[in-house]
C-alpha cells in the first residue's frame, strides 16, 4: 500500500484553513469520472479537455504545472495550433467555477491550491490505506479490513473516466494498479481471519477479470485449499501455468510454484483438513431426510391445500412429460415457513416414493451453505460414492440431475438465501418437486409458484396457543389468552415460545403471562424459551442487510404509526423518494417490512420493537434518531399546513405556526390534499404523540392545530382528542404556556364537536388566560370565538355576544379575515336566539360574502349553514333550503361528516316549518346515520326530536314516541333545557 500516489498539499492546507472552512466547501473526485461539488451541489466541469486540465492539476500534488507540461498532458505530441489559447480558455472557465484562490496562475503555469480536508477522494483513499496499514501492523485486522473497504468504496468506476490525453491514460493505469494492490491486501487479511469461503467467489471474479495477475491466483488457491477444495486449488495452478505459457511464454513466479508444492505435500502450516478416507462403493438408497412434523400443527388450511395441489401436479407433470413443480414460500422469520413446508412435505410423501431430500441452507446466517457442498451431501444421500463426486459446482449439479433422472424425489430447501443459491439444487426433471422456504421473495426463480406467508389469523393463533397450554387453562382466561396472542403479533414462533413458557410454569396464570408481554420494552426479552427466541430470529435477517438497508430498517421502526407512506419514509431517511423506494422494496423482499398498499409500508409489531432496539444499539451518529423523528414531524407539519392553506385561503393560522426545516408535499388540488390528510390521519396523530420532547413540542401542537379538520369532520375525533390531551400534559410538564394554550384550543374544539360544552368552555377559558401570559394572539382569537359558540348552546346569550364581539375585534386586529367571518356567523346565531332576525340574516350574509370573496369552500359552507338558520327563522324557507343544500354539498365534498349531518338536521327543520313532513323524516334519518358515533349526545337528541316531530306528523306515532323518549332521556341526563320541549311533544302521544 506504500506505493499509492500522494497528494499532501491538496489535502492539508494548514490548521487555520481547516478551522475556517466554509460549510459549502469544494470537493473533487478522480476515482471515477472527474467531478466537482460545492457542498452537495454538483458543478459543471465543462468539456472533456477542460476536465483533463482539472484532473492534471488535481494530481500534481499542489505543484505548479507549466503551460508546456499541461499541453503535453492534454494533447501529447500532436497539440492543436492554438493549444496555448485553448489552455488559457479552459483555465479561465475553471476559475469561474471554483472558489477564489483555488486555481492559481504562477510563472505562466497553473496550480490547484487551498483545498480543505478530504476535498479529493484520492487523498481520502490514501489516508484510509495508511490507517489500514497501521492497524494491520498493530494486529487489528478487523479495523484494517473495515478501513480498507471504505477506501476501495471510493472508486466509482474507471478512474478519470472519459478524460482524454496521454497524462490521463498513464494516471488511469497507475490508479487502477493501486486499487488492485489494495484489493490484494484486503483479501490477504480476509484469509488471515479465516474468511476463506467468502473470499472464493470474489477471487474467482477477480482472476477472470485479471487473468495474468498471479497474486490473485495465489490467494484463490489458498482460499480453495483452506475451504477443503484441494483439487480446485491445484487446478488453479495448472490453469495459471498454461495461460502464462500461452500468453507470455513464462512459468509461474516462485511464490505460486511454492504454494502448489505445499498443497501437494499437505503442509500443516496451510491448515489443511485431514485426508479423506476411502469411501465404499455406492449403493442405491432412498433418502428420507424430512425433519419430523410438529404434532401440534395448527391452521394454515388454505396454504396447505394450495401447496399440496402444486406438489400433486409433479406426478401429473411426470405423466405429461413436463418439468418438476417448484414452490417458494417467503415470509418474516418466525412466521412458520419451515413448519408449514415440512407438514406439507410429509403429506406429499406418497407421491415421491424415491425419497425426500432436506437441507437447511442457512440463508439467514452469516455463512449460507455453498451449493456445491449441499450437492455433495445430496449425491451421497442418493448413493453416490465420494470418489465419484466431482469438484466443480457445474459438474456436481449435472451429476445430481442425472442421478435424479427417472426418479420421483421431493427436495425441501429450507431457509434459502436467494434464488442463486437455490438454482443449482433444483432437480430439473419431471416427476420431482422442490419446496423452498426463504425470508426473501424469490421473484427471480423462474417458474416457481410463489407463496407469501403472513401471520396467523386470531382464531388460528388462539388454537395453537390452546394446543400447547391446554384447553382448561385457556378456557378459564380466554380474554387474557387473546391478549397474549395479540402481543405476539399472531406470529407462530412467538406464540409457541409464549405458550411453552406458560405450559412449563403451572403456577402462572394466563393473565400473568399477558401482563409480562404487555410491556413493549420487555416483550422481545420475554419471548424466548430454551434455544428459541424471536429476537434471535430477527437478528439473522438484520445481519444480512446492507448498511443502507440496516439504517432504513432502524430509523423507520422509530415511528409509531400503523404504517408509513413513501414520502414520510423519505423524510425519516432524508433521502430522495426514488432511493427510499428502492430501499423499502428491498426490505419488503427480505420480509422485514411489509407492503401495506402501493406506496405504503408497515412493520410487524414485533419486528418494529426489534428495529427500535437495533436503533438504540446500533445507531452511531449522535442524535440521528432524534433527527429522523424531527424530519418526520417537519414533513407532517409542513404538509398539513399546506392542506390547511388550500382549504382556507387567507387564514392567518399558517403564519403563526412553528417554522420547519424539512419540506412537505405540495398539492394543487384540494381533493388530493384531503386524500392525504385523511389517509395519513392515524400516522400524523401518532407522530404528534411521539413528539413531546421540549425541542419538538411546539411543532407537535401546531401540527395538531393545522390538522383540525380531523376533529371537525368527526372521522378521527376520539384519536384527535386523546392526542390533544397528551400534548397538553407534555406542555404542562415543560411549563410551556404557549404550547399549552394552543393544545387547549385543539382540546376545546374537540370537546365542542363531541357535545361536551361545559368542558369545552373550561378549556377555552384556560386557553385565553395562558395565551395572554404567552402573548400569543391567535389562540386568544380562536378561544374567544369558541367561548361565544358554547355560551350560545348554554343559552347564555349576553356572555356569548361579549366573547364573539371580542373575537371579531381580535381577528380584525390580526388581519385574519376568515376568523372574522367565522365570528360574524356565530354572532348571527346569538342575534337569532335573542329575536333579532334581521340583523342575524345580515351578519350571516356578511360572513358568507367574506368567505366567498376569499374562495373558501369549506368555510363558505359554514357561512351558508348560519345563513340558512337565519333565513329559516325569518320565514324565507325556500331560500333557507337553497343555502343549506349548498352547505350540505360543500361539507360532503370536504368530508365533514359531522357538519353534513347537522346540515341535514337543519334541512329537516326547514321541512317541518314548510309542512313537508315525509321529507323532514328522510332528512332527519340521514342526519342520524351520519352522526352515529360523532357529534355528542346533545346533537343526537336534537335530531331525534326533529325525527319524532316528523314521524308524528305522518301518522307514525309509535315510532315517534320512541324517538322522543330517547331524546328526553338524553336531555334529562345532560340537564339541558330542551327536555321541556320534548315533554310537551310527548304528552299528546302518551295520552293517545
Automatic annotation (TrEMBL):
Signal peptide feature range: none
Residues within the DNA-binding region(s): 18-114
UniProt cross-references to InterPro entries, sorted A to Z: AfsR-DnrI-RedD_regulator (IPR051677), BTAD (IPR005158), NB-ARC (IPR002182), OmpR/PhoB-type_DNA-bd (IPR001867), P-loop_NTPase (IPR027417), Sig_transdc_resp-reg_C-effctor (IPR016032), TPR-like_helical_dom_sf (IPR011990), TPR_rpt (IPR019734)
An example Gene Ontology molecular-function term: DNA binding
Domain OmpR/PhoB-type: 18-114
UniProt entry keywords in alphabetical sequence: DNA-binding, Transcription, Transcription regulation, Two-component regulatory system
PROSITE patterns named in the record: OMPR_PHOB
Pfam family, one: NB-ARC
SMART domains named among the record's database cross-references: BTAD, TPR, Trans_reg_C
GO biological process: phosphorelay signal transduction system; regulation of DNA-templated transcription
Family: Belongs to the AfsR/DnrI/RedD regulatory family.
Name used for this protein in its record: Regulator
Amino acid at each position: 500500500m506504500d506505493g499509492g500516489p500522494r497528494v499532501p498539499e491538496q489535502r492539508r492546507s494548514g490548521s487555520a484553513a481547516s478551522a475556517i472552512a466554509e460549510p459549502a466547501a469544494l470537493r473533487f473526485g478522480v476515482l471515477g469520472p472527474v467531478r466537482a461539488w460545492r457542498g452537495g451541489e454538483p458543478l459543471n466541469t465543462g468539456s472533456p479537455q477542460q476536465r483533463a486540465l482539472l484532473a492534471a492539476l488535481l494530481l500534481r500534488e499542489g505543484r505548479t504545472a507549466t503551460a508546456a507540461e499541461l499541453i503535453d498532458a492534454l494533447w501529447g505530441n500532436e497539440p492543436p495550433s492554438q493549444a496555448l489559447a485553448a489552455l488559457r480558455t479552459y483555465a479561465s472557465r475553471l476559475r469561474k467555477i471554483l472558489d477564489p484562490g483555488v486555481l492559481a496562475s504562477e510563472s505562466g503555469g497553473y496550480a490547484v491550491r487551498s483545498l480543505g480536508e478530504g476535498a479529493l477522494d484520492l487523498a481520502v483513499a490514501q489516508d484510509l490505506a495508511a490507517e489500514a496499514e497501521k492497524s494491520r501492523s498493530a494486529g487489528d485486522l478487523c479495523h484494517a479490513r473495515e478501513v480498507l473497504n471504505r477506501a476501495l468504496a471510493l472508486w466509482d468506476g474507471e478512474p478519470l473516466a472519459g478524460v482524454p490525453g496521454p497524462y490521463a491514460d498513464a494516471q488511469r493505469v497507475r490508479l487502477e494498479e493501486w486499487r488492485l494492490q489494495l484489493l490484494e491486501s484486503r483479501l490477504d487479511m480476509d484469509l488471515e481471519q479465516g474468511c476463506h469461503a467468502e473470499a472464493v467467489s470474489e477471487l474467482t471474479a477477480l482472476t477472470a477479470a485479471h487473468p495474468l495477475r498471479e497474486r490473485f491466483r495465489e490467494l484463490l488457491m489458498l482460499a480453495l485449499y483452506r475451504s477443503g477444495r484441494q483439487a480446485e486449488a491445484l487446478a488453479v495452478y495448472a490453469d495459471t501455468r498454461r495461460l502464462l505459457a500461452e500468453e507470455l511464454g513464462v512459468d509461474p513466479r516462485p511464490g505460486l510454484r511454492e504454494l502448489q508444492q505445499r498443497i501437494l505435500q499437505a503442509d500443516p502450516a496451510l491448515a489443511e483438513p485431514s485426508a479423506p478416507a476411502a469411501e465404499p462403493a455406492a449403493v442405491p438408497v432412498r433418502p428420507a431426510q424430512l425433519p419430523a412434523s410438529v404434532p401440534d400443527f395448527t391452521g394454515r388450511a388454505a396454504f396447505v391445500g394450495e401447496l399440496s395441489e402444486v406438489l400433486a401436479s409433479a406426478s401429473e407433470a411426470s405423466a405429461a412429460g413436463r418439468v418438476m413443480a417448484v414452490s417458494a414460500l417467503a415470509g418474516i422469520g418466525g412466521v412458520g415457513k419451515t413448519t408449514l413446508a415440512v407438514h406439507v412435505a410429509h403429506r406429499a410423501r406418497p407421491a415421491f416414493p424415491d425419497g425426500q431430500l432436506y437441507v437447511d441452507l442457512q440463508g439467514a446466517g452469516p455463512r449460507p451453505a455453498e451449493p456445491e457442498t449441499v450437492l455433495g451431501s445430496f449425491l451421497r444421500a442418493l448413493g453416490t460414492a465420494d470418489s465419484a463426486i466431482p469438484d466443480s459446482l457445474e459438474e456436481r449439479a449435472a451429476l445430481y440431475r442425472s442421478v435424479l433422472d427417472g426418479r420421483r424425489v421431493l427436495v425441501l430447501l429450507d431457509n434459502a438465501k436467494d434464488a442463486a443459491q437455490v438454482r443449482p439444487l433444483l432437480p430439473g426433471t419431471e416427476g420431482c418437486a422442490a419446496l423452498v422456504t426463504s425470508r426473501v421473495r424469490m421473484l427471480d426463480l423462474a417458474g416457481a409458484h410463489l407463496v407469501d406467508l403472513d401471520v396467523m389469523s386470531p382464531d388460528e393463533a388462539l388454537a395453537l396457543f390452546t394446543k400447547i397450554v391446554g384447553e382448561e387453562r385457556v378456557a378459564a382466561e380466554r380474554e387474557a389468552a387473546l391478549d397474549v396472542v395479540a402481543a405476539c403479533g399472531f406470529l407462530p414462533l412467538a406464540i409457541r415460545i409464549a405458550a411453552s413458557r406458560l405450559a412449563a410454569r403451572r403456577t402462572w396464570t394466563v393473565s400473568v403471562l399477558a401482563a409480562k408481554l404487555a410491556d413493549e420494552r420487555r416483550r422481545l426479552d420475554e419471548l424466548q424459551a430454551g434455544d428459541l427466541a424471536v429476537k434471535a430470529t430477527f437478528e439473522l435477517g438484520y445481519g444480512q442487510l446492507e448498511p443502507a438497508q440496516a439504517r432504513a430498517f432502524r430509523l423507520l421502526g422509530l415511528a409509531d404509526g400503523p404504517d408509513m407512506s413513501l414520502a414520510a419514509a423519505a423524510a425519516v431517511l432524508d433521502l430522495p423518494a426514488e432511493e427510499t423506494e428502492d430501499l423499502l422494496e428491498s426490505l419488503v423482499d427480505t420480509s422485514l417490512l411489509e407492503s401495506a398498499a402501493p406506496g405504503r409500508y408497515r412493520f410487524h409489531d414485533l419486528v418494529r420493537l426489534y428495529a427500535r432496539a437495533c436503533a438504540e444499539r446500533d445507531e452511531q451518529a449522535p442524535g440521528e434518531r432524534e433527527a429522523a423523528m424531527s424530519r418526520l414531524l417537519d414533513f407532517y407539519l409542513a404538509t398539513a399546513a399546506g392542506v390547511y392553506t388550500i382549504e382556507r385561503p387567507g387564514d392567518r393560522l399558517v403564519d403563526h405556526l412553528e417554522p420547519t426545516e424539512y419540506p412537505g408535499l405540495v398539492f394543487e388540488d384540494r381533493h388530493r390534499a384531503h386524500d392525504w390528510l385523511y389517509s395519513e390521519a392515524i400516522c400524523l396523530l401518532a407522530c404528534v404523540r411521539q413528539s413531546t420532547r421540549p425541542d419538538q413540542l411546539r411543532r407537535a401542537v401546531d401540527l395538531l392545530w393545522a390538522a383540525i379538520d380531523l376533529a371537525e369532520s368527526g372521522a378521527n375525533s376520539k384519536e384527535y382528542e386523546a392526542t390533544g390531551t397528551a400534548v397538553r400534559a407534555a406542555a404542562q410538564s415543560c411549563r410551556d404556556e404557549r404550547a399549552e394554550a394552543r393544545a387547549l384550543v385543539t382540546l376545546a374544539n374537540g370537546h365542542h364537536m363531541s357535545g361536551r360544552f361545559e368542558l369545552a368552555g373550561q378549556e377555552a377559558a384556560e386557553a385565553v388566560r395562558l395565551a395572554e401570559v404567552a402573548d400569543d394572539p391567535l389562540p386568544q382569537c380562536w378561544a374567544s370565538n369558541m367561548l361565544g359558540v358554547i355560551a350560545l348552546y348554554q343559552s347564555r346569550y349576553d356572555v356569548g355576544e361579549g366573547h364573539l364581539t371580542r373575537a371579531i375585534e381580535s381577528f380584525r386586529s390580526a388581519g385574519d379575515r376568515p376568523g372574522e367571518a367565522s365570528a360574524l356567523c356565530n354572532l348571527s346565531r346569538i342575534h337569532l336566539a335573542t329575536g333579532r332576525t334581521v340583523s342575524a340574516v345580515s351578519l350571516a350574509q356578511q360572513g358568507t360574502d367574506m368567505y366567498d370573496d376569499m374562495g373558501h369552500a369549506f368555510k363558505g359552507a359554514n357561512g351558508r349553514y348560519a345563513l340558512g338558520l337565519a333565513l329559516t327563522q325569518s320565514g324565507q324557507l325556500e331560500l333557507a333550503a337553497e343555502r343549506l343544500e349548498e352547505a350540505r354539498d360543500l361539507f360532503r365534498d370536504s368530508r365533514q361528516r359531522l357538519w353534513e349531518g347537522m346540515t341535514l338536521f337543519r334541512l329537516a327543520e326547514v321541512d317541518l316549518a314548510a309542512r313537508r313532513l315525509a321529507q323532514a323524516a328522510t332528512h332527519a334519518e340521514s342526519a342520524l346515520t351520519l352522526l352515529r358515533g360523532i357529534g355528542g349526545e346533545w346533537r343526537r337528541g336534537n335530531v331525534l326530536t326533529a325525527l319524532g316531530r316528523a314521524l308524528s306528523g305522518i301518522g307514525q306515532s309509535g315510532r315517534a314516541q320512541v324517538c322522543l323518549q330517547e331524546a328526553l332521556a338524553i336531555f334529562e341526563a345532560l340537564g339541558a333545557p330542551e327536555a321541556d320541549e320534548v315533554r310537551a311533544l310527548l304528552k299528546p302521544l302518551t295520552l293517545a
